[in-house]
Amino acid sequence: MLALCLLLGGTAPLAFAQDTSSAPGNPDPFAQLLENARQGAESSGPAAGQEQNVCQVAASELVELASPVEGVIHAMHAKRGQRVKKGELIAELQADVEKAQVNYAQVRVQSQSNVAARKRQLEFAERRIKRTEKLRAAKLMTQEEIDTLETERDSARLDYDAARENIDIMKAELALSKAQLADRMIKSPIDGVLIEKLLTVGEQVDGKAIALIAQLDPLFVEVSLPVAQFGKYHKGEKVIVHFEGPQIGPRDAEISLVDQIVEPKSKTFGMRVVLPNPDLAIPAGIGCHIEFLSPKKQ
């Protein structure tokens, strides 16, 4: 052994140290390093009975808010980053003509003078006929006189009915004017956050979007799974969402949709998870991974 070590340029003590390095109780440092790496990989993976898959957090709705009519923006009532409610006024187009039309229609509807006049004429004609009942019974009136009174009464009734119908027409015109004015008041169709203003005061609206509104409560988590897992998960099952980047703890969520079509090229299918976000602490667009719970934890 000593001669062999001298030929290799070593010494007896060195050869002895190398021989004893593989003895029991003195593990090989390289083997120990491999073992540590293996254990680290196992500890960072999903726990037994669980699976994790990469996913993406997205807004549940993204609305490019537009106007049903053309016009010039008169005012913007919401700012970027502002939370808005469904039906809240976001933008207002110039509407001087439409407001004037509404006021005019309201005055016409509120004016009942014509109806009142026609009603009095009808009542007068009916009183005249009533006063002549005894004369007609005694045959002291000619048939021509009777026909004249009845014709006047019938004509007064037609005028009164026409006046009332005209009020209904004016009410319909008022409703139309209000609808035309409402078209120039652009309101949010959802609860959400105004992400971006695309137009501002003084700009022309001619089919362009005015603002971008995102619904962030709830959020949708879009997951792509390999076809081998098809049929394994179902709507209504609970999952846990873990987020990348921001310091946000895991959140409970629920599967809302499992696609029934497999993408042939990637051999994957999609899944959607609904994630409550009432405090808006979770931003849309961040990466995540899904932890599928074992049946015992559902």
Short description:
This protein has helices at 2-7, 12-20, 29-44, 96-110, 113-131, 133-137, 143-182; strands at 51-65, 71-76, 83-84, 89-93, 185-187, 192-197, 204-205, 211-226, 238-243, 251-258, 268-275, 287-292.
Question: Which helices and strands occur, and which strands form pairs?
Answer:
Elements (H helix, E strand, L loop, with lengths): L1 H6 L4 H9 L8 H16 L6 E15 L5 E6 L6 E2 L4 E5 L2 H15 L2 H19 L1 H5 L5 H40 L2 E3 L4 E6 L6 E2 L5 E16 L11 E6 L7 E8 L9 E8 L11 E6 L6
For this structure, what is the CATH class of the domain at 51-62 and 213-297?
Mainly Beta
Find the CATH topology of the domain at 51-62 and 213-297: Elongation Factor Tu (Ef-tu), domain 3
Biggest pleated-sheet summary: 6 strands, antiparallel, barrel
Spans where pLDDT lies below 50 across 5 or more residues: 1-51
Helix/strand structural class: alpha+beta
Instruction: Give the CATH superfamily of the domain at 51-62 and 213-297.
Output: Efflux pump adaptor protein, beta barrel domain
Question: What does this 3D model show about the protein?
Answer:
Residues 63-209 form the CzcB-like barrel-sandwich hybrid domain. This is CzcB-like barrel-sandwich hybrid domain-containing protein. Residues 1-17 form the signal peptide. The protein is α+β, with helices and mostly antiparallel strands and 298 residues long. Among the domains are: 51-62 and 213-297, Elongation Factor Tu (Ef-tu), domain 3; 95-183. It is built from 7 helices and 12 strands. It has helices at 2-7, 12-20, 29-44, 96-110, 113-131, 133-137, 143-182; strands at residues 51-65, 71-76, 83-84, 89-93, 185-187, 192-197, 204-205, 211-226, 238-243, 251-258, 268-275, 287-292. The strands form 2 sheets. Strands 1-8-11-10-9-12 form a 6-stranded antiparallel barrel. A 4-stranded antiparallel beta sheet has the order 5-4-2-7, with no helix packed on it. α4 (96-110) packs antiparallel against α7 and α5 runs antiparallel to α7. The longest helix has 40 residues, at 143-182. The model is unreliable at 1-51 (pLDDT under 50).
